[in-house]
Design brief:
Mean pLDDT: 81
Number of strands: 17
Oligomer: single chain
């Protein structure tokens, strides 16, 4: 008998009309839930990771998303002085986005290096073939209204080389974000956190997800309960080789928890290099 698998996209949401950081809870976004098939829901996660130091991940972006029914928190990756890469399930239907750059403690607006830039909905570009019912083509880009100056706190990640086809199986990577740091946590983390995790072969990953993982996805092993969690959606998965090459954007996991050692699933960036170039003009040739 086929095992019924329930997957969760990795997003955290709150319905408060004002910033109330102490009470931000990872919740389901109703407008997105209605688009998902029976048994699927929206969610995101960094569990059992390390606290990031200032300047450690200068490509990391935080996204406060403004929706018709409240606000949601996601991650993203800076890929140039004008463009941010994230997940479609984060930005689908947004009215606007506060983009956090150079942040470690997202609640401390006086933090050294932190900048917040508002991006209107006309500068949000969701993949045209994004399918929320299957979580396919889960990728989008945001254009900042003005070029930003790079410094020790803010630097872009590198894209993989155009035409690269590496599967990266077994390679060590770093996932980062402000998602919940354990299944018992009541809200997204104030402090940026990270984990080092190996890439899992897609055919092995699909033994857990029974066909939900496509060639356009990339999976991580979460052995040791090290995983992405609520609030990490759209955030970076980079090669841990000093190049800061982004190879994934956090997409989905299993609904039963972040610490159950099911693989974490990301959008595979090498599958979308042509799309990214078309939308942003950015490529690594």
């Amino acid at each position: 008998m086929r095992l019924f698998i329930v997957i969760f996209a990795l997003l955290a949401s709150t319905v408060s009309a004002h910033y109330d950081w102490e009470n931000v809870q990872p919740r389901h976004v109703d407008s997105l839930l209605k688009k998902l098939p029976r048994g699927k829901a929206i969610d995101g996660r960094i569990t059992n990771g390390e606290a990031a130091a200032a300047k450690q991940f200068p490509y990391q972006v935080g996204l406060m998303l403004y929706l018709d029914n409240g606000r949601a928190w996601c991650g993203g990756t800076l890929i140039s002085n004008r463009w941010v890469l994230t997940a479609a399930h984060c930005t689908d239907g947004v009215n606007g986005v506060d983009v956090y750059l150079g942040a470690t403690n997202r609640t401390d607006r006086s933090e050294a290096g932190q900048q917040i830039i508002y991006v209107g909905k006309k500068y949000v570009f969701v993949h045209e073939k994004w399918d929320s019912s299957q979580l396919v083509n889960d990728i989008s880009v945001l254009k900042l209204p003005i070029p930003i100056d790079f410094n020790d706190y803010i630097q872009p990640a590198a894209l993989p080389k155009l035409g690269e086809s590496s599967l990266y199986t077994g390679e060590k990577t770093i996932a980062s974000g402000w998602g919940r740091d354990s299944d018992s946590a009541k809200g997204a983390s104030e402090i940026l956190r990270w984990v080092e995790v190996p890439i899992m072969a897609n055919n092995v990953c699909n033994r857990y997800y029974q066909g939900s993982v496509k060639d356009t996805n990339i999976c991580i092993s979460t052995k040791g309960k090290k995983s992405t969690c609520n609030g990490d959606s759209g955030g970076p998965l980079v090669l841990n080789d000093g190049s800061n090459t982004v190879i994934g954007a956090t997409s989905f996991g299993i609904i039963f928890g972040c610490e159950v050692e099911f693989p974490g699933v990301f959008t595979r960036i090498t599958s979308y290099l042509d799309w990214i170039k078309e939308k942003t003009g950015i490529s690594n040739e």
